[in-house]
Queue: 2 jobs
Job 1
Amino acid sequence: MTVVLGGALMAGAATAMLPQAHENVAADIAAGAWLVYQHNFVTDEGRVVDNRAGGISHSESQGYGMLMAESANDRQAFDQIWTWTRANLFVREDGLASWRWDPKQIPAITDRNNATDGDLLIAWALMRAGQRWSEPDLQREARRISQAIAGRATLSTDHGLVLLPGVQGFGPNEQSDGPVVNVSYWIFPALAELGRLSDGFPARDLMESGIALLRDSRFGPARLPADWLSLSGPAPRPASGYPSQFGYDAIRVPLYLAWYSRDYPDILEIFASHWKQYGSASMSVVELATATRLSPMPDPGYQAVAALVECSLGRRPDVALLSDFSSQDYYPSTLHVLSLMAIAERYPTCLTEFP
């Protein structure tokens, strides 16, 4: 079934504000898409369900749901998601969330380790919600979590200050080629905004390391980054023990970078050029050594990421494709809504004006 739906963020230090005179088509589509997403993946108690992972929830899904609800100005849904998240995932003693909750297990927390991208998403959503609804308590929670990330999930390396994917398991003494990082955990707009919220959050250092890693991690004929990187040597390389591929993690890299700023065309154009080689069915997992295309990514949600990148590069994407919110699984559906949010906030005239 195809559902056709119709009807501010920062680059550097500037916040992109939407002129009232312009029609924001992406915002209209995103508002409708949130309603579909909420119906499909958010329970009445506020649990965001990953239907392709056995119905589990994780800190990432909860953070995404909170971001979407705030963007849609849906205070009831935001409060439900945050209440569930706080009660069920914040069981660690360091202020970070356990990453995995499985309704089929007792206890439901099956891995107490955190996922740093999930913590960033939750903190960012709390900060935005606190600003939107003038709630200092939410701002304080955002500051507390961001400071816990800085204290527990960052590491100084020869490549700069980096984000560890989790507090346990990724350091130089925990993997044979550690430290190991995941470049999709650099949520650039979240890092920038949390840096303005808390003086104790090292946003500038983290953003510098993230951009440098993306420029230094162009592997194989396609020149794409790997999902998982080893930083044990002088240059980043695909981490051992993980598939050497641009996959379902790294697809978020251009989403987050384009959401943050259009000022990195040297990075963003690599993704756009690769996808254009293969036409409308271009999205896929890519094996890096030979640029062999593996698992296809046919869902409209993945195509929405490509549309966002086109907007960031000053080109107009296919509006009809962005409006196609077909029944999808949790992950591409999430990327679809996030891409629409990013276009609405950063490139509000992209769908209505030619460059």
Job 2
Amino acid sequence: MRTVYPEMVPHSVASAHHNWIYRRGVLPVLALLRMGATPQRLAWSIAVGVLIGTNPVLGSTTLLCLAVAFGLRLNVVATQIANHAMFPLELALMVPFIRLGARVFHTAGMPLAPRALVQAARSEPLRLVRQLWMWEWHAFVLWAAIAAVAVPALALALTPLLERLHARVRQHQYPIVPTHL
């Protein structure tokens, strides 16, 4: 009996059987495993992408992921997939990181009311910009401290899962047969 892989099925049929997360997250990881990526390297790549993807400084994640992936010789594709999957979580965690940063560093809290921000922008725009940078910097420092612990923990948790997935991929892998025969 011939094994049918999702990439062999027309997109319309595949989309009826798999949800968005499976198609955009799991299938690319399966493809990377089939192309020879090791489970350990993929685990570290995904962990780095997930944690950098939750970085509270908006607009910095893609470049930071690329720099870290190249610097540590991680899988850039896996890192970027995980990074971009974290965007909603990045938005959700931005304000809590800023608030926690203000508490830890004993600075004034960020006014979240739109009127207060608009008033500060009109009356003292330079001071507001300095405060925004300070809040972002404090949030980033806290995030970096958490990420330094969470990346290895997440990579260690993902490694056995990816090793099992890799074993299944190798078990079901079929030889490539030339089509002209």
